[in-house]
Amino acid sequence: MEEMHSEPRTDKIDTHHHFVPDFYAQGDPSGWPTPKWSPAASESIMEQLGVKTTILSLTAPGACILEGQKSFDLARRCNEYCSELRDKSPRKWGFFAAFPSLLNTEAALAEIAYALDVLHADGVSLFTRYGTGNTYLGHADIEPIWKELDRRQAVVFVHPTHPVDTTKVNESMPQPLIDYPHETTRTATDMIIASTRRKYPGCKVILSHAGGPCHISSRESPTVPNTGNKLWLTSNRSTMT
């Protein structure tokens, strides 16, 4: 039997690694504290875990923590910061671009063009929900964004943000512990029901946290016909014809 090696592999690519520059030092409404961060701190973690390349992304709420032009400016500053870091060590760093609210369609499309065409980002980072309501990624208002990303065959990293109701179930249980993974599943299911992935198959989607509890879908799907769900009725009818 070959001897087991305890040394970590050194060819890993980390696609879920957040950066927190000093100009993004505001709190997260989920209750999660904003950590102190530096490239050196990330490099130390990479060395410990055998990570060769890290793809940086901005955690929730991202540039959406601000509104209007300030949100656009913050997204641009974050993207240019990552671009400069990547250019210094291109084998060590990459990044998924940040954006203002996707509900500001023109601003989001402009930043997609700048981030991918000028800064050459490795992909984009989208949050599970936008605005003050339940506008998840399968919503019609997000379709112009998906259409452009599909045209570019972009890599799309989906990261959760807080749900509409930010009330804590327990003061000792910040939302990222439980609610965030559920938000990932909610937006993934929303995209499936809205046929987002079918309409825009060119995007390569990465769901953070392994998609949350997506794995229970096979257990729950047999109950869908009992709900009178239009998706099931349409799919069933098209299968029979």
Explain this structure.
Residues 217-241 are annotated as: Disordered. The protein has 241 residues and is α/β, with parallel strands linked by helices. The protein has a single domain (12-216), classed as Metal-dependent hydrolases (TIM Barrel). The chain contains 8 helices and 8 strands, in the order βαβαβαβββαβααβαα. The chain has helices at residues 39-49, 68-88, 105-118, 143-152, 179-193, 196-199, 217-220, 230-240; strands at 12-18, 51-57, 93-97, 123-127, 129-130, 135-136, 155-159, 204-207. The strands form 2 sheets. Strands 1-2-3-4-7-8 form a 6-stranded parallel beta sheet, with helices on one face. The relative contact order is 0.11.
List the helices and strands and how they pair.
Elements: E1 12-18, H1 39-49, E2 51-57, H2 68-88, E3 93-97, H3 105-118, E4 123-127, E5 129-130, E6 135-136, H4 143-152, E7 155-159, H5 179-193, H6 196-199, E8 204-207, H7 217-220, H8 230-240
Parallel strand pairs: 1-2, 2-3, 3-4, 4-7, 7-8
Antiparallel strand pairs: 5-6
Helix pairs in contact: 2-3, 3-4
Total number of strands: 8
Q: How many structural domains does the protein architecture include?
A: 1
Query: What is the count of helical runs?
Result: 8
Structural Rg = 19 Å
- Could you give the order of strands across the largest sheet? 1-2-3-4-7-8
Any idea what the shape is?
Answer: globular
Alpha-carbon distance between the two ends: 57 Å
Oligomer: single chain
Second rung of CATH, namely the architecture: Alpha-Beta Barrel
- Overall residue-averaged pLDDT value: 85
Domain Amidohydrolase-related: 13-213
Protein name: 6-methylsalicylate decarboxylase
Catalytic activity: 6-methylsalicylate + H(+) = 3-methylphenol + CO2
GO cellular component, one term: cytosol
